Amino acid sequence: MEYLEDQTVKDYDSGAILRFAFEFFDTFKGLISGLFLSPEERNVSRQFFLNQNSKCAMQIIEIELSILYEVLHTKAQMVRCKTGYIFRSVSFGCILCAFFSFFFVKKHSFRMFDIRLSYGLLISAMVLDFISLNFVILSDWTVRGQNLGKRAEYIESKVFDRRRWSGSVSQYNFFTYCLNDYPEWINKLAEALRLRSILEAINEARHRSSKKFRKNQEWHFIFSELREKSWTAKTVAEGKRICLQRGDGILSKCENENLRRSIQDFEYTESLLMWHIATELCDEDKAEDGPSSENIDYKAICKLLSDYMFYLLMMQPTMMAPVSGDWKLVFEDTCGDQEILV
What we know:
The chain has 18 helices and two strands. The termini are far apart. The protein is mainly alpha-helical. The chain is flat and about 90 Å long. The chain has a two-stranded antiparallel ribbon.
């Protein structure tokens, strides 16, 4: 991947972006099993993304994560190997044999309903095989190491334009959860029937929502912040120090001691909850912010990221396991305090 270091900011064609995504997938897939990047691999990756704009970086990361999902949760690699093609051919051949055998057999003793049902099932099986073959052709793996000839540009564009995710992020709000609880009699009934945990799970799912993730707003902001920090992380030690920051970098420029204490004197989840509540209170302030020079709605970005982080704590606690601690206890205490204040 040495050639990647020489790439500069520009809009690549779809085929180049697909190939870059596979290159980085091969580099980073070892991280899943606990392996580490070599200094050379780290520097190549860092230098490449420092020289890209947010649009190009987003496209590469989308494809890379899509490939990772297919490897971990589908049979993508098995289907596209020699053995997979053999089994697929045998399967489709068996369906064709069954169809023609049934077509030429005498069916005088069969009921019309059974005949139509059999034809329907056999034709459906062939249609599903054709659809599956179309997915195989128009997949990311097709452009990898394949000589596509004159149709290369067409196939690459079709693969590139394929939808890979919903384009939205999950949201969860502390006040929505606490202020829209079930009536007291329902809670008591669930407690008596020992269904309290089920009721809480339903309540948590009931308040979950999602918002559109705007590439020209949220993603541009995130990528710009990451790129700015990456410029300073010239060593692994410096990179680890930046990754351990919980807002220290920006609050170090602030003279308000109480704001710095909200990070320094509390556990990660307590600090995150406090800032989530603070973000919500600021968002309720309907005063219009002055337009930024970059035409970016920072208030909406903060709200979206705050609700997403709270969603991870509530609905995906395993992702926050190393830092969550006694998160549930802190959350229940805060909910109790909020109910008293309201």
